[in-house]
């Protein structure tokens, strides 16, 4: 089978085809748009036949459209992590770095690794992820606005309780209305900017609320079993669903745990031989979501509390016990997503 490796960039994609022994058969550079993707498909089929496997360097922002176009054309596509491509390039005989060299390294890495993730259309997970990312961006922007607003209020009325509202209350319409009334008689640049910032907060807060309602509807339709997990709220469930991008692309739960950064790393030297240490790799967004579930279960004495106490009783430190709990939660989340019942078409359409 001919493997076509790709090196993806914002404006161009470079493809190199290799045979079963990894020998280059040809290369092509096209524009990073649907016309360029169609040209690459014609080139590959005309020169190498239909028995093809496309290996794409896993750069989601730049490779997503190429991946979708190849899948729509019925092609077999695997995702090659950039780390594997870099390792293959270092061991190659060729010197330097170029787009064809990188594409060749991607193709050879795909030949060397038989169990790479298989790309599948996951538009639903992508849409959920985009909604969650959009809401997080707006929340971060609102937080920056609130911080700037507090500085102006401090200069306008130091020590005044109205000018120093309690933490996490400025997202409420009532608190902002009281501040706006307090600012009516104030003059100067600080008062003017404070009123402008309040207007900006008033503008984006309803958008944030609407996005949360939309995400809630999505998750109630797509992953009700995930919402039933103790400590897993709507936004955490949406983060897990979107970042997982299709649980069936993981062969088993251990691979999913490695992807989430919860799989332990053994220590084989020194006095700590035989123990495990924390993994700093993996998808940190998923890791943070699992961390939130774990901490919530500990605070509310949920199902994970007994397991955590058991690990502590055996001599584990706080960090070690929490790591073990997150690994256990990764297994539970994987099994929950994998056995999630199919979503009826009309229910899916209603959520959309």
Describe the protein's architecture and organization.
The chain is of the alpha/beta class. It has 3 domains: 111 residues, Ribonuclease H-like superfamily/Ribonuclease H (Nucleotidyltransferase, domain 5); 99 residues; 113 residues, no CATH class. A 5-stranded mixed sheet has the order 3-2-1-4-5. Strand 1 and strand 2 form a beta hairpin. Helix 1 packs across helix 2, helix 5 packs across helix 9 and helix 9 packs antiparallel against helix 11. The longest helix has 34 residues. The protein is globular and about 75 Å long. It starts with a strand and ends with a helix.
Question: What features would you highlight for this structure?
Answer:
single chain, 352 residues, alpha/beta, Nucleotidyltransferase, domain 5, five-stranded mixed beta sheet, two-stranded antiparallel ribbon, 59% helix, 10% strand
The low-confidence runs, each spanning 5 or more residues with pLDDT under 50, are 344-349
Task: Return the string of H and E elements.
Answer: EEEHEHEHHHHHHHHEEHHHH
Can you summarize the main beta sheet? 5 strands, mixed
β-strand number: 7
Order of strands, widest sheet: 3-2-1-4-5
Give the number of helices.
Answer: 14
Regarding quaternary structure, how should these chains be classified? single chain
Structural class by secondary-structure content: alpha/beta
Estimated radius of gyration: 26 Å
What is the percentage of strand-forming residues?
5-15%
Fraction in helix: 55-70%
Number of domains: 3
Q: Overall 3D geometry?
A: globular
